[in-house]
Amino acid sequence: MSVLEIRDLHVTVETDAGVTPILNGVTLTIRTGETHAIMGPNGSGKSTLAYTIAGHPKYTVTSGTITLDGQDVLEMSVDERARAGLFLAMQYPVEIPGVTVTNFLRTAKTAIDGEAPAIRTWTKDVKSSMKNLRMDPKFAQRNVNEGFSGGEKKRHEILQLELLKPQIAVLDETDSGLDVDALKVVSEGVNRAKEETGLGVLLITHYTRILRYIRPDYVHVMVAGRIAEEGGPELADRLEDEGYDRYLPAGVEEP
Length: 255
Ligand code: ADP
Ligand code: MG
Ligand code: MG
Known about the structure:
- Belongs to the ABC transporter superfamily. Ycf16 family.
- The protein is of the alpha/beta class.
- It has one domain: Rossmann fold.
- It has 7 helices and 12 strands.
- It has helices at 46-54, 78-83, 101-113, 119-132, 150-164, 180-197, 233-242; strands at residues 3-15, 18-31, 35-39, 59-68, 71-72, 86-89, 96-100, 143-144, 168-172, 200-205, 218-223, 226-231.
- 35% of the residues are buried.
- The model has no long low-confidence stretch (mean pLDDT 93).
- Bound molecules: adenosine-5'-diphosphate and magnesium ion (2 copies).
């Protein structure tokens, strides 16, 4: 049982134009076993929240806290965050030239567990997870994210999720660029992790489509760096019908 607590989080980013506030007081609690969806218009700060939890150096926390089981996440290195049980799948995953998927996964697993996984069970686990995600076995020998299609990048994220067995996963726009078949496969992977390990999920999405496959327990709407509204799955259904217009100032259209 783990709990990720975000309290009154204020985050700025430095640009050529100076320091810009992006998150203006975000409060959120995610426990293992729970699925939270963060929805909201483009540019509202959803990815900024994901990057901040991940420890991206571009984002500065000016006040507020993030803790995992009472431990200060903001004081942790990126590696320590992963070892503590956090998993972050970014909207735009980076390429790692010269590192194959299979070596990457093994290195990550070793770093997180503090010891190398036993070869035989590990090879079996990787094979069966890849099969679950309908991935070609040849994929394991490709370099991480190099020339991956949108769908392959997302499957690779979920493959990591299945094998690394984190406590809490932040998935930023895991649905973007997926056709319906890939969306189903990816959602099944997340749902398997929820069932098998009691994974807690923070699912960031602009669209309601993925929420038909991964049902959220809670829905939070982010607007201009704040949570503007919270509710259950019915809130996602309403957003599907109405969009985000009601949250935006009159006359402003979503960018
Ligand atoms: P969302 O994921 O909800 O679309 P983002 O968190 O990506 O929103 O962006 C929120 C706002 O912060 C946008 O106005 C965006 O331009 C700005 N922003 C985010 N990251 C950066 C960055 N690294 N440099 C400059 N501006 C940024
Ligand atoms: Mg966006
Ligand atoms: Mg985003």
